[in-house]
Amino acid sequence: MRPAIRFPHPLLQPPTLPDPVTNQTITSVSRESRLFKPSAEFKAQANLGSEAAYKKLYAESVNSPERFWERQAKQFLTWRKPFTQVLQWKPPHAKWFGGGTLNVAENCLDRHLGTARENKAAIIFEGEPGDIRTLTYKQLHREVCKCANALELLGLRKGDRAAIYMPMVPEAAVAMLACARLGVVHTVIFGGFSSEAIKDRINDCGARVVITADGGWRRGKIVELKDSVDRALGATPSVEHVVVLKRTGNAVTMKEGRDLWWDDLMAAAPAVHKARAHASEQPLFILYTSGSTGKPKGVLHTSAGYLLGAAMTTHYVFDIKETDIYWCTADIGWITGHSYVVYGPLSVGATVLMYEGAPNQPEPDRFWEIIDRHGVTVFYTAPTAIRAFMRWGDEFVTRHSLASLRLLGSVGEPINPEAWMWYHKMIGKKRCPIVDTWWQTETGAIMVTPLPGITPTKPGSCTRPFFGVVPKILDENGKPVSRGSGGKLFLTQPWPSMLRTLWGDDARFKEQYWSEVPGLYFAGDGARFDEDGYLWVVGRIDDVLNVSGHRIGTAEVESALVSHPSVAEAAAVGRPDELKGQALVCFVTLKGDQRASDELKEALRAHVAREIGAIARPDSLRFAAALPKTRSGKIMRRILKEIAAGGDVKGDITTLEDFNVVASLQAEE
Ligand code: ATP
Ligand code: MG
C-alpha cells in the first residue's frame, strides 16, 4: 500500500522552474510517510533502550568528543598500555589513542578465554555443499595462534602486507586475525575477482604472501581460486609465498619453493603464540572500495580506532547479546565482511554464522533454511539480495518459520521502500526492527542508522547519526541546504574508525575526500534531511539526474519503479539531450512471471509520473535481462550512463560482475 498522493500535488502547480545554473540543490520527489516504531518488547531488552539515553550520549559525543571517545575506548577495548592522547587532528590526518598499545586479535579472541565465552561458538560455518563446522572461541584462538606462527616462519613481519584471496570459510577469518596478531597488514581480495584485479591489488600494496585456497563452492561449481592466483602472479614481483588451503580438492599446480599447503604449515606450527602489543595507529588492513564509481581506492584502516568503531556499532546497532546467533551475509572481501563478520562481532564475543555459497543453491530458500537450521537471531544483508528474494517469490520464504529472528539489517545501497516493506513483512514478520545502515569502506563502521530499540523507522531512510557522527548536507557552494532539499553529504567531525589515507596515494586521499569543502569529509553521496531530521541517501552525487532544471537523486526514481508490481530492479541515468539538458533513461528488470511489452513500458512511465510527479516521467525506458553490478551487488550507473549515451564503455570495469550484461545491453540498442 502506497500513501495517497496529496493534492494539490506540488509538482502539478504552474511550473516555477528553478534556474538550472544557480539552483544546485537536489529536489526530492519522494512521498514516503510510513513510520514504524520499535515494539515495547524489543525496547525493554535493547542494549540502548531509551531515547533520552541516545540524546545524552549523542550530545556528549559531538560536544565533548574526546571525553566521549576516551570512555568508549576504555569500555570496549582491552589495552596493553593505556593511551595518553585521545585525538591528534591535523586535517585531514587523524591519529587516535596516541601512546596506547593493544593487539586487535587479542581483543577478538584472547580476552574471551578464561571467561564463560571460552567454549561458546565463535564461528558456525556452513559450506555450500552442506558441511557444517563449529569453532569455539578457544578453538579459533588456537587456529589463529598456529597461523600467526606459520606466517612468521614464512618471514612475515609487522608492517608487511599479505593478500588473502579465499572463499567464505573460517580459515579466511583465521588468516585475517593471524595477520592482525602480527601487525601484518592484510588486504582481502574478494574471491570472485579475476586475476587482473588480484594483480592490481597485490602490486598496489606490495604483498609478500598470498593466502588462498584450491577453490571455493559457488552455485554447485568450484571457483578455482589458486588458478586465478597463478595467472596473476606472473606480474607480481613482491610475492614470495603462496599458502594454499585445501577446500574443494580440485587439482592445482604447486610451484616448488613458492607454494605451500595450509595444512602442512599449520601442522608444523606451535599452538601457542605470544601476541605483541601494537601501537593504536598500527596499520591493520588495506581494502579496495567496490568500484561503483571508478577505479577502486586502497583504503587504509589502523588498529584501535577501527576496532572501536566496529565493536561499538556491533553492540549498539545489532544489539548483540550473549545468546545471539548473528549472520551478516557479506563476503569478507568487502568492508561489511571485515567489520561485521570478523572484527566487530568477535570483539564483542558474539557467535557468527558464516555461509560459503550462493543464496539460491540448491534452491532459492537456502538463506531461510540456514536461519531455521541454526536459529539465527540477527540477520544483516543487502538490498540487492532482498530484491532478488522478492523476484524469486514468497513461496520460498513461507515454507520456513524464521521465528528465531529478532533484528534485521540492510547495507550497501539505498533500500527501495518496497523492498524494505517486503523485508519487514516477509522476513521480519512485522516483529523485527530493521536497521538500514549507511556507511562506507572509508568510514570503517556504521555512521548513520536507526538504533533498534529506539528509533522509529521509515522505509528507505537510514534515519539518524550514530555517536560522534555529524552529517551535513551542503549545496555546490558549500552552503547548508534547507530541510527537504538534497545536496552533498559531508561528515564534519573526525571519528575513530575513519580511513587514515589511501595506500600509497595521500594526494588522492586529500583530493577525493577533503577538497570539496576544505576540512570536511566528502562522502560522494547525495542526501537530504526530511522534516524530522531523518537522513535519506538519494544516490551518488555523480549520478544525480538533471530533469528540466531539477536535480533529482537516482534512488527516488528507481524506488518509484520498484514499487510497481511487475518490476524487480531499476536504474535511472541521465542522457545528454539538446532540448532538456538531460533526458531521463531508466533500465528495468522484471519479476520472473512478467513479460516486457510496449504497454508495460507505457504503464511504467505513467506509474512513475503518478508516484512522484510528471517531471520524473522517464523519457525512455528499457527492459533488460539484468543490470550491470559490482561484484558486491551494487548497480553500476556509470556504465549505464555510457550505454544510454550510445558510446563505448570506458573507465575501470575490473569490479564489474558480469561483462555479458553490458554486452547484451549494448546489443539491444
Ligand atoms: P567506490 O567508492 O569504489 O565507487 P562504493 O562506494 O560502492 O565504491 P563501498 O564503500 O562498498 O564502495 O560503498 C559505500 C557506498 O554504498 C556509500 O557511499 C553509499 O553510496 C552506498 N551505501 C551503503 N550503505 C547504504 C545505505 N544504507 N543507504 C544508502 N546508500 C548506502
Ligand atoms: Mg565509495
TrEMBL record:
Residues 54-108 form the Acetyl-coenzyme A synthetase N-terminal domain. It catalyses: acetate + ATP + CoA = acetyl-CoA + AMP + diphosphate. It is an enzyme of class 6 (ligase). One of its GO terms (molecular function) is acetate-CoA ligase activity. Keywords: Acetylation, ATP-binding, Ligase, Magnesium, Metal-binding, Nucleotide-binding. Acetylated. Deacetylation by the SIR2-homolog deacetylase activates the enzyme. GO terms for cellular component: cytosol. Its cofactor is Mg(2+). One of its GO terms (biological process) is acetyl-CoA biosynthetic process from acetate. Residues 556-634 form the AMP-binding enzyme C-terminal domain. The modification N6-acetyllysine is found at residue 634. CoA binds at residues 218-221, 336, 360, 548. ATP binds at residues 412-414, 436-441, 525, 540, 551. Belongs to the ATP-dependent AMP-binding enzyme family. This is Acetyl-coenzyme A synthetase. The lineage of its organism: Bacteria, Pseudomonadati, Verrucomicrobiota, Opitutia, Opitutales.
